[in-house]
Amino acid sequence: MKLLAVDTSTYVMGAALTENSRPVAEYITHVKKNHSIRLMPAVRSIMQETGWKPGNLDAVAAAEGPGSYTGVRIGVTTAKSMAWALGIPVIGVSSLEVLAFNGRYTGGIISPFFDARRGQVFTGLYRWENGRLVQLKEDRIILHEEWLEEIRRLGEPVTALSPDVEKHEDLLQEKLGPLYTPAVPQDHLPRPSSLACLAADKEGTAAHLFSPNYLRLAEAEAKWREKQKEQQHERK
Amino acid sequence: MKKETIILGIETSCDETAAAVIQGGSTILSSIISSQMESHKRFGGVVPEIASRHHVEQITLIVEEAMEKAEVTFEDIDAVAVTEGPGLVGALLVGVNAAKAIAFAHDLPVIGVHHIAGHIYANHLVKPLEFPLMTLVVSGGHTELIYMKEHGQYELIGETRDDAVGEAYDKVARTIGLPYPGGPRVDKLAQTGEADIDFPRAWLEEDSFDFSFSGLKSAVINTLHNARQKDTEIAPEVIAASFQEAVSDVLVTKTMRAVKKYGADRLLLAGGVAANSGLRGALQEAADREGIQLTIPPLSLCTDNAAMIACAGHFLYEKGQFADDRLNGVPGLALESF
Ligand SMILES: [Zn+2]
């Protein structure tokens, strides 16, 4: 199976081609520059280098979120539009799961996370078991403090992976103490070939039905729902 | 015989997800618009993040519907034209990235179109443009007089210095207490009232083709405020009619003066506020009086749509003006000649 995978959900931008889960080409940058301008040139470049034609692809995979709303949309829109135009399925993979892939030789539990402002993070809990990445706790948005207390109680070494790790380093040390297992810099950055490998084991979706998994309502929507609840309360 | 060029157009600059297929630059094979109005109504205006979320959910469905209705396949399509800007950045990005991905999949050229050029070219879908022409562009974000000597040549000769017409309409609507979207409701209300209040008209410098609506908007707000303080009532339809008359008066007078000064043979009305019946009527009357040929698109082509984007894109296609893979959504894109 020939796969194109794209990930623009954080500032790491990645595009990869895999054939039967074996990476054939990979393009990754770790700079905070515009994904909308750079994604399609990256895709075209790896396709040209490998001599692959769009018509050769069996599916397109994308990191479906959580992450930057706009970032996630660029990748998801590109993947679903291309898949639809080619008449092939699109496969969505959690952006956090892609990052957790980097913890494959740690043995302990893996908490990939993205900073979500105001002390919150997008995170979930994973572990490698018998050569497979298994999800232990589902992806969510939560106060990082609260989350770290929850996973410390599991009493296992924790590999916390994140492009935003520096900002959270002190908190990780403080809350996890000796359980905290620091990772090397490149393991904090998601790889598109990992995304493609994970996608190869998942079910595809019809392109029309594929949309981001933001894990959070738009702010205006959240406020509106809050107000509805209050009004309902007042009426009672 | 060479087959006529077929352009697929995509527009996602605000709260409409739209796709269209145009043949030969002027035949609309299909034009599909999915409006998000209902979903923004409860917020009293368009919420950019929610608009972007809708676009990404809708985009392929709408493009597919446009192609199915037009009965074309990718083999029939010569290029994909998409709104590059101006507009809401997050919304634009969905259309732009969809267009690039679709084009890449089928090795088609991509064309970036300026949203206002699209509104102007909506008129070409009604009747082929003839030059030189003058366009009055009126929308929620724009109030401009644009002079064109030929296809793709835009000369901005006047613009608003503060609020766009559509903005002024929305603010007045809110002051009267009309729900979103306010503009069309003010227009409707105005038709039932007499324009008894003489609101100020901002003519600016004698030779200026610029506009200003903030003073008028404040005058409306003050008038209502004073009346409320004195415990008197002014019928909202009188406010609406008087406001609408003041707006039309300035727009029509300046436009007709510009037409004369520049010796334009043709006058176009473009943009979402071109749907305004008061303005349509007043401009038609003035054009008839002066013997100037006026085109106003039907309502379906005044509001945002992709047929107009495909149409403007057609002329860029003819000139070989293609975008590359780096095409981006540009919220403040300037209207440049091609
Ligand atoms: Zn518009």
What does this 3D model show about the protein?
The complex is a heterodimer of chains A (236) and B (338). In chain A, helix 1 crosses helix 2 and helix 4 crosses helix 5. Chain A has 2 domains: 129 residues, Nucleotidyltransferase, domain 5; 93 residues, ATPase, nucleotide binding domain (Nucleotidyltransferase, domain 5). In chain A, a hairpin with a 2-residue loop joins strand 2 and strand 3. In chain A, the strands form 2 sheets. In chain A, strands 3-2-1-4-5 form a 5-stranded mixed beta sheet, with helices on both faces. Chain A has a 4-stranded mixed beta sheet with strand order 8-7-6-9. Chain A is globular. The termini of chain A are far apart. The mean pLDDT of chain A is 96. By secondary structure, chain A is α/β, with parallel strands linked by helices. Chain B is of the alpha/beta class and 338 residues long. In chain B, a hairpin with a 3-residue loop joins strand 2 and strand 3. In chain B, the strands form 2 sheets. In chain B, strands 3-2-1-4-5 form a 5-stranded mixed beta sheet, with helices on both faces. A 5-stranded mixed beta sheet of chain B has the order 8-7-6-9-10, sandwiched between helices. Chain B folds into 2 domains: 133 residues, ATPase, nucleotide binding domain (Nucleotidyltransferase, domain 5, 2-Layer Sandwich); 167 residues, Nucleotidyltransferase, domain 5 (2-Layer Sandwich). In chain B, helix 5 runs antiparallel to helix 8. Chain B starts with 5 loop residues before the first strand and ends in a 20-residue tail after the last helix. The mean pLDDT of chain B is 95. Helices cover 43% and strands 18% of the residues of chain B. The complex binds zinc ion. Zinc ion binds next to helix 4 of chain B.
